[in-house]
Amino acid sequence: MGEDKKVARIIGSGIAAIATSIRIAKKGYEVHVHEGNSYPGGKLSEIKLGKYRFDAGPSLFTLPENVDALFELCGENPRDHFSYIKKEESCRYFWEDGKRLTAHSSIDKFVNEAEINLGESSQAIRSHLSLAKKQYDSTSEFFLERSLHRLKTYLRFSILKTILALPSLRLFSTMHGVHVKRFRTNHMVQFFDRYATFNGSSPFKAPGILCMIPHLEFGIGTFLPKKGMVDITNSLVALAKRQGVHFHFNEKVTKIISNDKKVNGLSVEKNKKDVIFSSDIVVSNMDVTPTYRKLLSYLPEPSRILSQEPSSSALIFYWGINEKFPEFNLHNILFSKDYKTEFDSLFNSKTLNDDPTVYINITSKDLPQDAPKNCENWFVMINVPSNNGQDWDLIRKKARQLIIDKIHKITRRDISSLIECEDYLDPRRIQSRTSSEKGSLYGSSSNSVFSAFFRHPNQKALKNLYFCGGSAHPGGGIPLCLLSARIVSDAIR
Asked: What residue numbers bound the domain in which 23 lies?
């Protein structure tokens, strides 16, 4: 170790950890990342089945400037190392009654199509997207870019912008409540309700402030890395290494070592033995619940934070399809008939709904190298409850048939015989591979107006101990994880 450098150790190598390692290295720290798996990225990794390649987890890329900023911080041109395309359409939507809608990046084009295909008021859609922009512009700096647990955040002049915008934030309405009042068609209500799933929440519980989420797609745009989503991980790991960051794989952290309420190292399992490493600071990218229960078991648990309702999880099938489907594009949604029943199943009864909404991501539409000629790589996902001991083998078998039936109803084609290779990811595998508590995708849900304040702070429990990633502030998803890295870095001196 360098004699003159302070040492930082990071637990886990999810996207927030990688970004944090880059930012801390730029501050002059000697940085070590300890990862229990043999690969980096956590959920943001890939799966290969024969000649098919799949992004394992996150499939939607927004706010690419958060990735670019890391290269720029290091004095590099992002395009020399990481490239992406902007999509002309963000997603295609399908209903069983034959209605279809393409969410074009052009608001004019989208509004016109929604008016023609769904019979929705163009003025209502424009007003709603204007509200989304206003909510985002007035709150992003306060809620997303800074710690909510530090006094100086509330002393900034910019908080006035948030205070003045309070009437438009719809804090005490649900997303669904806002949409029902705004739109005259059930199709449009369901379309905008869907954005609650972006952070694993229910539109029937999540506050109306989350109506801002569509602004990311329509106001800013959706993108796709030219080498797949995994290239976010790969390019940033390469950048981190150029900054001197050390990655240690197959090294499971077993304990955070502290003395006199101050962190001073880690216990790490190496070759079936626990080895102690000293450290000036520690950053946990592990879910906050196992961090406390496994690595900080000697401390009292922050029960209010750990008792928050977990976000939904996912059941994903990776299917190599030996045929092309021109009606589909990169992102596709096949809606359930009854959204209320679906979300009741997710968050109340915690069971599989008999008519789940199906999401299909097909990167080979834009990246032909991801599938053989005249074939497609289908990432097929449904929202499922977090892991509470359900019979996931039975659920997976039932879900597989429900998905095939749904696709048949929409496309009039039975895909059963077209699946030539298959793998899956369920809440159990998510939990075991990423340490996400109960397999939740986004830490805690946002099914409360106070959810943002109940997320775990980026600095708590012990001096020089920090938290980043989806279970900490500001939340889950690639953009927010990258912002959590910036918040942590700003707190470190």
From this structure: 7-44+61-76+229-308+454-491
